[in-house]
Amino acid sequence: MKNKKNIVISVIVIVILAILGWTVFKSELASGKNLGNFKADNQEIVIGAVLSETGMASIDGNNIKSGIEFAKEELAKKGVKVKVVYEDDQTNPKNTITAIQKMVDFNHPQAIIGPTWSFLADAAGPVVEKNKIVSMSPANTSEFVTANSDYFFFGAPKNEAKEKYATDWIKERGLKKIAIVVENSGWSESHIAPFEKAIKNSGAELVFVERFTYTENSVDGGGIKSIILKAKDAGVDGILYTGFDQATTVLITKKQELKANFQILMATEIPLGLQKKGVVKIKNEDNIFVISPKDSESFNEAYKARYNEYPGAYADRGYDSLMLLVSALQNKGNMDLKDYLKSDVAPYHGYAGVYSFDKKGDVKDSTWKVMQVK
After folding, report:
1. Torsions phi, psi for 88 (to 5 deg)
2. What DSSP line would sit under 189-226, residue for residue?
3. What confidence tens digit (pLDDT) does each residue in 315-366 have?
């Protein structure tokens, strides 16, 4: 009888521990903190990082690097030895090619993080394919990278998925006359098609599509002031926008100076970083909204707790890129790394979402949310 009682107690304890374990696991997934299956190991993992630390793409390149360094520190705490070898391509496609080949020849990395922007990835395509090395680009998708390779993986969810969120935003805000404004780049322009569909789906009117080239020495950043005045004159009540840090800063400040009362949905979380860093001051009445990864705030707070400052755009995806590559390398067994990443064996749950890849190397899951910056 006593033995039966002990068995019953043991079963109850096991069930309770299982429930507690599942509860913790679900909590980690919800917060973006289920950061892979890692093993403390004396064998060093070598990852290359070909990023734009200088040049036009340096803002994103250095943000990605800061995320990688944060991840490397976290891995060290887990007893995982990782060496990250950096090469600065200076936002020059020729340097991207040279940097990857040099890295493969002398450092023998098991995978590469980068390049930073799409035209650099286009240059990297042939050398990545030739050397059969996985390249993980935190800020790109296949939508605006023309080079094809089975070894390409992209950390940013496809922009076409933003159509639904833009549609819902237009409807919820009751907007009728919409303009599309994008900075000249492959990434920015890839938003035009889903934006146009969103306007059509919502029943609103597309007033105009405007592309601009940011110019640092220009008073209004390359025509941004003129675009705002054009929108005001046309009675636009909503703008769908995408652009990079400097242009976004000018757009926000000029909107405020000109007292333009139209609302803006920005298809990037850049304004959140600008606000937190004090570069701009955005108020409720500015009516600026962003499409942002659901768990980005969790990363922002973790990063702030470690470095006493908020991260820039793509730092979360830089962090996730290193984490998922190391987790995959430790758990792939005899599988080729590219095949393991595209399999359904173990999707990686990171801060910026779930990383499960399709045949083109794009993230399948698009966990966005629309939030007002205030």
Report:
1. -95, 115
2. HTTHHHHHHHHHHHT-EEEEEEEE---TTSTTTTTHHH
3. 999 999 999 999 999 999 999 999 999 998 768 889 988 899 999 999 987 7
**Amino acid identity at 77:** K
Tens-place pLDDT, residues 81-104? 999 999 999 999 999 999 999 999
Of the three residues 268, 287, 322, the one that is the final residue of a domain is: 268
**Secondary element (H or E) of residue 369:** strand 368-372
Cα–Cα distance measured from residue 71 to residue 86, given in angstroms and rounded to the nearest whole number: 15
Cα–Cα nearest to 245, from 192, 313, 195, 180: 313
Nearest alpha-carbon partner for 182 in 280, 268, 61, 282: 268
For the beta carbon of residue 320, count every other beta carbon within 10 angstroms.
31
Task: Report pLDDT for 345.
Answer: 75
Instruction: Clarify whether residues 180 and 233 are in a common domain.
Output: yes
- Cα separation, 108 vs 269, whole angstroms: 35
Given a cut of 90, is residue 216 above it in pLDDT?
no
Q: What is the DSSP string of 125-185?
A: HHHHHHHT--EEETT--GGG-----TTEEE-SPPGGGHHHHHHHHHHHHT--EEEEEEESS
Amino acid occupying residue 47: I
Question: 171 in a domain, yes or no?
Answer: yes
172-201 residue pLDDT tens: 999 999 999 999 988 899 999 999 999 999
Whether the Cβ atoms of residue 53 and residue 62 lie closer than 8 Å to each other: yes
Beta bridge partners of 154: 137
Residues 169 and 228 in one domain: yes
Region 105-127 average pLDDT: 97
Instruction: Label the pairing between strands 111-113 and 41-51.
Output: parallel
On the question of pLDDT at 24 being above 50, the answer is no
DSSP state string for 12-79 = HHHHHHHHHHHHHHHHHHHHT--------EEEEEEEEEEE-SSSTTHHHHHHHHHHHHHHHHHHHHTT
Same domain, 205 and 216: yes
Residues 175 and 104 in one domain: no
- C-alpha angle 350/365/289, rounded to 5°? 85
Whether the Cβ atoms of residue 187 and residue 117 lie closer than 8 Å to each other? yes
